[in-house]
Amino acid sequence: MSRASKTALAPDLRDCDERTVRAWTEPMAVTPLGGGCYRVDTDADTYTVDVPGHRCTCPDYHFRHAHCKHRRRVAIEITQGRVPAPGQRRADCAHCGHESFVPETADVPLCADCRLDDGDVAVDRETADTLVVRRVLPDRADEYVIEATGRSVAAHDTNEDYPADDLVVEAVYLGDQLRNDDPRVYAFPYSRLRQVEDAAVVD
Ligand SMILES: [Zn+2]
Ligand SMILES: [Zn+2]
User: Fold this and answer.
1) What is the mean pLDDT of residues 4-15?
2) 133 and 189 inside one domain
3) Structural domain includes residue 114
4) How far, in Å, from the CA of 72 to the mean position of ligand 2?
5) 165/26 Cα distance (integer angstroms)
6) Does residue 127 sit in the same domain as residue 194?
7) Does 108 map to a domain?
8) Sign of dihedral through CA atoms 134, 136, 142, 144?
9) Which of 80, 81, 110, 140 is the most buried (most CB within 10 A)?
10) Domain count, the chain
11) Dist. CA 11 → ligand 1 center (Å)
């Protein structure tokens, strides 16, 4: 029987310098402000840490350019998943509702399990056709109207088994994409597509 290896869950503070000890042990509240900046509230004051800029508004940074306890605390909280990393934000997944960190710029917040990016390959559960995803829209399937038919995605004959409030995914048929520089884009209810690993596609 294999045994789990022994590991420490926090650094040995006896070996750490004072700023690191304080970063781990002092009560602080870290609030993401977006753009890689975080507000850090301590018992004494409130400062702003700019992670990409490697800056803090505290005197320790201002006068000594120190890697101050606030910058260390923000790094600890990012590493532990307590706050989003720069470029990410906390959001409920627009498909499954699960809370996670998503790219700050994402129009439609999707968790790691539900994320569909431009170029991802998916299979149409109705026809088994292979599709290449273009984008996920925030629109509901019963609100997005297909121009060619004048009806919503949800009202389309073959989509009746999928939730009316599904997100809409725009995709092209892989065969079209291989033959045509400008393949026609189709709209699908999110649940109709099954994501596959790119490696599984052979033509
Ligand atoms: Zn600081
Ligand atoms: Zn999700």
Assistant:
1) 88
2) yes
3) no
4) 31
5) 46
6) yes
7) no
8) negative
9) 110
10) 2
11) 20
**Is residue 160 scored above 80 in pLDDT?**
yes
Residue 111 in domain = no
Q: What is the pLDDT of residue 182?
A: 94
- Does residue 100 form part of some domain? no
Query: 87 C-alpha vs ligand 1 centroid, how far in Å?
Result: 21
Neighbours of ion ligand 1 (CB under 5 A): 56, 58, 61, 68, 70
What is the 185 CA–ligand 1 centroid distance (Å)?
Answer: 50
Q: Which tokens sit at 151?
A: 């009806």
Question: What is the mean pLDDT of the segment spanning 7-29?
Answer: 92
Confidence of residue 184 (pLDDT cuts 50, 70, 90): very high
Q: Which of 79, 95, 130 is the last residue of a domain?
A: 79
Could you tell me the residue range of the domain that residue 74 belongs to?
13-79
> Would you call 105 helix, strand, or coil by DSSP?
coil
122-143 burial: b if 16+ Cβ within 10 Å, else e: bbbbeeeebbbbbebbebbbbe
Distance 68 CA to ligand 1 centre (A): 5
pLDDT attached to residue 8: 86
Point out the ligand nearest to the CA of residue 63: 1
Where does the pLDDT of residue 9 fall: very low under 50, low under 70, confident under 90, or very high at 90 and above? confident
CA of 1 relative to ligand 1 center, distance in Å: 47
Say which residue, 197 or 92, is predicted with more confidence: 92
